[in-house]
């Protein structure tokens, strides 16, 4: 029997996420915040607050796991956070003379705040729908949450990217159940604040190859252990 979709919880989640986003990017309420790192986090905190509020208000059985299928949280933390942070910070250092570890970790925490909402909560609430429909709903809501609603060519391209991003990150979440894993993948493009060029693209492709291989190998290893115990 398929789980019923709790539309009330989704509405509460999304209204809170939108309000927080609007306050952070469309008003001057954060003008007094001196830390740029804190400003980054406040721009992405809405989905997390909305998710926690909806789960609490509607008493939902909605698991939010950092480690997911992994035995310890250190595994996804090392593979999906430490690896990209160290790799990308090193590239920054050798190309720009900077070693922005704090910025890198701020970006993955930002990704985590978003992913608590989009994957941890919303994807879970829509899991009874066919993948295409749930992905389309998440993509549209996620696109609108950014508050860039003008139908320009750039925004239409961004919507397409959001759709495939929602599909790809959704696949990672389905396979791993780990918010740390999807936060790392989510943050991949955000690491490159000056755009994606040849070097950045190579890093993205390399990390994606490593992560996909890791997911496949870990999945096969887990299934082999299960078959041995049965």
Automatic annotation (TrEMBL):
Residue ranges of the TM segments: 7-25, 40-60, 72-93, 99-118, 130-147, 153-170, 201-218
Source taxon at top rank: Bacteria
Residue ranges occupied by any CAAX prenyl protease 2/Lysostaphin resistance protein A-like domain in the UniProt entry: 99-192
Alphabetical keyword list: Membrane, Transmembrane, Transmembrane helix
Which Pfam families does this chain map to?
Rce1-like
Which residues belong to the signal peptide in this entry? none
InterPro entries linked to this entry: Rce1/LyrA-like_dom (IPR003675)
Question: What name does UniProt use for this protein?
Answer: CAAX prenyl protease 2/Lysostaphin resistance protein A-like domain-containing protein
């Amino acid at each position: 029997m398929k789980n019923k979709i709790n539309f009330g919880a989704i509405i509460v989640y999304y209204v809170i996420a939108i309000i927080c986003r609007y306050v952070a990017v469309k008003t001057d309420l954060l003008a007094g915040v001196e830390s740029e790192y804190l400003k980054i986090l406040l721009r992405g905190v809405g989905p997390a607050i909305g998710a926690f509020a909806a789960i609490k208000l509607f008493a939902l059985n909605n698991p939010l796991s950092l480690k997911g299928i992994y035995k310890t949280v250190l595994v996804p933390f090392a593979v999906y956070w430490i690896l990209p942070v160290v790799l990308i910070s090193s590239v920054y250092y050798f190309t720009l003379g900077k070693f922005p570890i704090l910025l890198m970790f701020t970006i993955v925490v930002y990704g985590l705040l978003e992913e608590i909402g989009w994957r941890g909560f919303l994807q879970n609430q829509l899991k009874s729908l066919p993948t295409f429909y749930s992905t389309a709903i998440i993509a549209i809501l996620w696109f609108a949450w950014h508050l860039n609603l003008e139908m320009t060519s750039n925004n239409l391209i961004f919507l397409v990217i959001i759709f495939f991003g929602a599909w790809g990150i959704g696949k990672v979440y389905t396979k791993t159940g780990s918010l740390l894993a999807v936060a790392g993948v989510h943050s991949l493009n955000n690491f490159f604040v000056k755009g994606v060029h040849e070097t950045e693209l190579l890093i993205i492709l390399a990390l994606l190859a490593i992560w996909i291989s890791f997911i496949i190998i870990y999945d096969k290893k887990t299934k082999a252990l299960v078959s041995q115990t049965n």
